[in-house]
Structure formats: structure tokens, C-alpha cells
UniProtKB/TrEMBL annotation:
Name of the protein described by the UniProt record: Uncharacterized protein
Keywords of this entry: Membrane, Transmembrane, Transmembrane helix
Keyword presence, Transmembrane helix: yes
Keyword Transmembrane helix: yes
Species this protein is from: Erythrobacter sanguineus
Transmembrane residue ranges: 6-29
Superkingdom: Bacteria
Length: 122
């Protein structure tokens, strides 16, 4: 194929490119319109804020989120404290002491039973 084979279709190619460009521009307008309608902040080409949200509703929302964040941090701190206590109890020597005592009792029973068997009383 040569370049001269595309000459009859040049008008259609230009029209298709124009239609695609127009649809892209319309889509961009629609996205911006939806952002404005739903309260999303508008951003420039490099992400800078064009219209910072400084109304009373946004300030109230920030205040509520800050309070909730403080409450969650306090709750997380108490959970960490409880976890430290549980770890201390589990790793404490007294926790394993009961298991060791039971093991000694079992071994003492086994020795007593073997002594009785040796004597012929069991």
C-alpha cells in the first residue's frame, strides 16, 4: 500500500479524529461538572487544588474526623496495654508452674505404680 491509496479516505480519517477529540473534550467537561455537583475539590494539571473546600460543612467534618481519630488512638492505646498484660501473664514463670506441677505428679504416680508392680502388689 502506498500513501496515495489513503487519499480517498482522508476526509473520513480527519472527521473521525475530530469526533474523537470532541468526545474527549465533552467527557472532560462532564467529569468537571460531576465533581462540582458532588462537592469534590477541583484539581489543576499537576494536582494543585483550584478550589479549596473551606466552607462550614468541611470544617465541621474535619473536626468530627479529628475527634474520632483521637478516640480511636486512645482505644488502640488501651488495647496495647491489655495485650502487654496478657503477654506478661503468659510468659510469666507462674503460668508454667501449674503445668510443671502436674507433670511431677504424673511422674510420681508412674513411679509409685511401677514400684507396686515390682513388689507384685499392683
Amino acid at each position: 500500500m502506498q500513501a496515495s491509496d489513503f487519499l480517498p479516505y482522508l476526509g473520513w480519517i480527519i472527521l473521525a479524529c475530530s469526533v474523537l477529540a470532541g468526545l474527549g473534550i465533552l467527557a472532560s467537561f462532564q467529569v468537571t461538572r460531576m465533581k462540582i455537583k458532588n462537592g469534590y475539590p477541583l484539581e489543576g494539571m499537576w494536582g494543585q487544588s483550584l478550589k479549596p473546600g473551606s466552607d462550614k460543612q468541611t470544617a465541621h467534618r474535619v473536626t468530627l474526623l479529628t475527634q474520632e481519630n483521637a478516640e480511636l488512638r486512645a482505644e488502640l492505646g488501651s488495647v496495647k496495654d491489655r495485650l502487654i498484660n496478657v503477654e506478661r501473664i503468659v510468659t510469666d514463670g507462674g503460668y508454667h508452674l501449674g503445668a510443671e506441677i502436674e507433670a511431677l505428679r504424673d511422674s510420681a504416680r508412674d513411679r509409685a505404680l511401677s514400684n507396686l508392680k515390682d513388689k507384685g502388689e499392683a
